[in-house]
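your task:
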Amino acid sequence: MSTPPPPNYTPGLVPVLKTCLAVSHSRGDIRKAALCYDQAVYIQRELWDATWGCGYRNFLMACAVLMVQPLQPLYFPLIDEPIPPGIRNLQQWIEIAWDSGFDLEGKAQLKKLLGTRKWIGTSDIWVAFSSRGIPSELVDFENTKKTGVQPLTEWTMKYFTPAQPSSSNSPRNAFDVLKGSNAVISTEKMPFILQHEGHSRLIVGYEIDKFGKVNLLTFDGGHPLPKSLREYAISKLPSRSISEPAGEASHKRRAGGSLSGVDGIKRSRSDADLDSEVEIVAERNINTPTLDDDIVITGFTSPTKRASASASSLKSSVSPTNIDLKLFKISPKALGTKNKYQILYFPMTAPLTDSERLESRAPTSTKVC
């Protein structure tokens, strides 16, 4: 099925960013850049969830890309059924997980989610995905005087840098890996959620500027995109930009697989600065602004080409040479204003078996610094 995107969805933005970053490289403004899987969708807040929905929007954006990626087609039916992802539906996912024995500490803290405007954190999103059999992992970072945010930026670079064949002369770090490669690349990596005190957002890549500074690239659903930029991105969509998921929804059998890289550190839910917000991505019935929900949808196409004054005006007013990339950048200085960060990422391993889900029902994280 194909459909035009709802008003607060912007598909096709990653390819536009790639083109803009290539222009920046040609001007000498950046050295390198790497982006996530190009089917990621920008889903921005609406009036009814403006003050509390960032975590929920991030969740929805994650679902939207996980449901169309080809690496693990069985993720689609696990996410879509029996309750599809949505803002209120995520609250229901989490409460159902609590009743199944997931995150009893979180249940005791939050008590009730469904129908409320309570903020949720990356650990709550981990609970939601784990209860559905989708592998995800938590990583903690601390901004210290000794290291600053360098461990976080280095982790991000390593995550989005394509793996290289091992050899005795193999590069030692992400900077070396990128030497000699294309300056601006898209990868098959899923975006990840970055949370800190007061906010969370989706990280879709990084850039290294001409001075060697690493900026993270983000989809921040709490900030509406300029209308002209959204229309430009959609105008660049092919007639079928997002295909049907690689797996049929009826294929529900769970394959073997396990989480890796979790060192057993308990995710402390008492850290209010980490559990402050979480977002969701996607929507339905957008024309009803009072509807207090959003449901993930996929399968977008570009609108029928219209020979109109507005179309020609759009072409002349927006181009990769004048799009302000500051909308999508987080600098080390901005990152340095927060003391703690937590990442939720997707290793893209096989879906969790029933026994694996039962064995790991409390959020745990790997501490990097």
Remarks:
- The radius of gyration is 20 Å.
- DSSP finds twelve helices and twelve strands in the chain.
